[in-house]
Amino acid sequence: xxxxxxxxxxxxxxxxxxxxxxxxxxxxxxxxxxxxxxxxxxxxxxxxxxxxxxxxxxxxxxxxxxxxxxxxxxxxxxxxxxxxxxxxxxxxxxxxxxxxxxxxxxxxxxxxxxxxxxxxxxxxxxxxxxxxxxxxxxxxxxxxxxxxxxxxxxxxxxxxxxxxxxxxxxxxxxxxxxxxxxxxxxx
Length: 187
Description:
Layout: E1 3-9, H1 17-28, E2 33-37, H2 59-69, E3 73-77, H3 87-96, E4 109-115, H4 123-135, E5 139-148, H5 151-154, H6 164-186
Parallel strand pairs: 1-2, 1-3, 3-4, 4-5
């Protein structure tokens, strides 16, 4: 049985290094892991209880929830925008946290990784994402981290999947997330 991991990327930019890192996760997924890169975060409206109704939430939010429900684990890729995670990623967490107490995160393992231009690789954004996901019901794997500094220079001419060190670290993250998802499925 393959573990399905839903990858959400906090940068909407076409040339985003975090998107490239997510693409590397799809490419480098070890045996027994299927990584689905979710497309469409830009189309999801900001969370608002007035539009999240039983008669029908917005189609892009429904698509996100359906992808999340069919996943066994989550892998968030986030840059750092002004010391925190991008709004588009926080918005996805808000949509996935509902309905309250029974959101898509319930009991599923989550890891947060990413790259940023700064010397710490976006750790503040990663920490904020972990906190928000935990409050939203996700089972954040706190010791499963990957923060890659200096993205602009490190990935200027090299895709993350071709960076030997990054590829090994990302493969390890996926393998450990698979283990946690397997444990959750067996419980």
